[in-house]
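Chapter review: from sequence to fold.
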Amino acid sequence: MSYQSEDWLIRESHKFPLLTAAQEIQLARQVQAWLAIRDKTDLTKRERAIVRKGRRAYETFFLANIRLVASAAGRVIRISGCLTFEDLMQEGMIGLERAIVKFDHTRGYKFSTYAFNWIRQSINRAISRHSRLIRLPDNCTVYIKAAKEFTAAYELKHGCKPSLEQMAAHCNITPHTLRAYMMHTMEVMSLDQRLSGSTPHGDERSTYLELIQAPETDESLQVEL
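The token string follows.
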């Protein structure tokens, strides 16, 4: 689906009321009927009508659930790193499109419940790809978020931080794996980054690289030419 800016989509989505369960089933049937013949080249008159109806159903499904994407994006904006809300919306819409294609109405659950998982997965993958210089597995972000939430709740209740073993048990992974994940959550800093203020060793024009002391030369290892 080709869409314009996220702001336009959010404004446009409010024109579409939330779908009822019966409407979701009807739209899902129309979308699946369209997808079943989407790749055919020689369509009959009846099939062309199915394609037109399926495309309209797809767009209705999409616009009626943009608010779901905005909700999912708003929940993770604090841990999105360099990604803006618009970036998260874009990634969430990719997940929404995938959910519309994959939705099976015969299983009896609501589309919003099914789609939210696809939207959240798409957003989390984007955060994992773009918010860090060091590439981490897609599920790493989920474990780190769970460990941080557990730590905050534990501190509030007990007045101290939990041990690594307790956090790992909560996340259902080994302490060794969690330690490796947590090590890579530390901020990566460029040595060419300039100082934000003056220091005894330099001014705001200095870089971190310029403040690193050069190793002393061992004269005994020098070779006279």
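Two observations follow directly from the output. The chain has a mean pLDDT of 80. The chain has ten helices and no strands.
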